[in-house]
Write the structure tokens for this entry.
Amino acid sequence: MSTPFPPLAYEPSYRRVAAAIAARIHARALRDGEPLPPETELASQFAVNRSTIREALRELESEGLVERRRGTKRMVVTRPGAGHVAGRVGHALALQDVTIREVWETLTIVEPPLAELAARARQAPGLEAVRAAVDAFEASGADTARAVDEVGAFFRAVASAGGNRVLRLAQEPLLLLLQSALRVMIDRVPQARARIASAQRRILAALEARDAETARTWMLKHVRDFRRGFEVAGIDLDTRVPHPGEAQ
Amino acid sequence: MSTPFPPLAYEPSYRRVAAAIAARIHARALRDGEPLPPETELASQFAVNRSTIREALRELESEGLVERRRGTKRMVVTRPGAGHVAGRVGHALALQDVTIREVWETLTIVEPPLAELAARARQAPGLEAVRAAVDAFEASGADTARAVDEVGAFFRAVASAGGNRVLRLAQEPLLLLLQSALRVMIDRVPQARARIASAQRRILAALEARDAETARTWMLKHVRDFRRGFEVAGIDLDTRVPHPGEAQ
DNA sequence: GGCGGCCCGATTGTCGGACAATCGTATCAT
DNA sequence: ATGATACGATTGTCCGACAATCGGGCCGCC
């Protein structure tokens, strides 16, 4: 048996241009904040038409590698931010018809260790953000949109306090999906707000006391409570998660 | 105090076109596999120039929402696949100068529960893939590239057996980064291959026996062993993870 | 000397048209 | 039916053009 021939791949110019620029960014030859050369110059450097350059730029833009800052003209090199990447992953998961159960199950796995990490972390400033998130949730009152946002902010703050950027980024799409499911659930469950607030306070207290064990177990209870919430609201856990809205 | 005015945002046409098409895909009005209308028709429908449509298409293409299948001309609607999304996230993490420690720490958190899930899963077919991955790793011998690939394949197979697509997708970028770090490490640590193979066999045995507890603990040992490997290889855990290559 | 307003070149967003390569398909011959 | 051929449709790439506006320099004024 001979090794099969690889399919001979033709790449259109716009993609090769995009790949060439992306490679420079990855190699740090083009760095964060640096302005990109104007389209006409890129066109003459690559010896292609400006239209081709523009198509390549759209690709890079959509990857979050370049962006044009608000009210400015030249594009600048940038590193894809957490929000940008998370949005993509969230959309992808929603399109895969992922169920609420799968999202929730993942949260039960990821969040408790995150709380534990945060409890062990040394810096105080991270805790300040957690405290602010807890207060903001209680202050959100009957404003559904705000309450849901603040639930996410709480998890984000805890993750940030933990100091692991990989975990924080991994968590981000989960929060997007949780929030979009939560928007439907929270107003159907009268006691939801009180239970969330109570759990958040307990977790905060554990973090302040550097009690990793308590932080972990309470975070687990907190996440489990969401499952209870969906059940009480009559939402089948095996329905697919609602598509995350465009609000960012 | 009055509420501050929101920045008045102008969106260029190509982005609004892309958003309009993306919305239809998200709403399932355009479904997986369906061919997109030709560019000229899209141009006349949106009443914009074909160049504008093409820029929008590059954006959608880069999001994995449309693709042109090999050797064909029309573009078809598609759902962003795991590999596609994972690549993006992997690049983003690498650009954020994430450290090997952060990746490894995340693996210690994510993988053991994944093994536990796989052990509890009812279907046998998933196990077949795990068995194949274990065999393939041992068969890879001194071929570094293949060995590294098979390490990833093992984790992927376990995750698939667990049946949680969210976890599987979350794991994917981690594997990309682990692999790119592993490529440097594995040949510097003589006993690495043997230890990996041994751990994989133990985990496989536990999965076959439906022993969730053993699967979890051995998976934890397996992941911890990678850390040991980096230390033995003299690789500082706090260096940033090498950028994942273009191989897919 | 610092500050605000004005003007001009540079750059981007969008348009129109053009053409070669090639993919899909209908037609035709065997 | 099967295989070869021819034609229209579609994409990739190019060229040129123009309005809007951003950035920066220049100037006058306090």
In short: The mean pLDDT of chain A is 92. Residues 38-40, 54, 68, 73-75 of chain A lie near DNA strand C (CB under 10 Å from a C1').
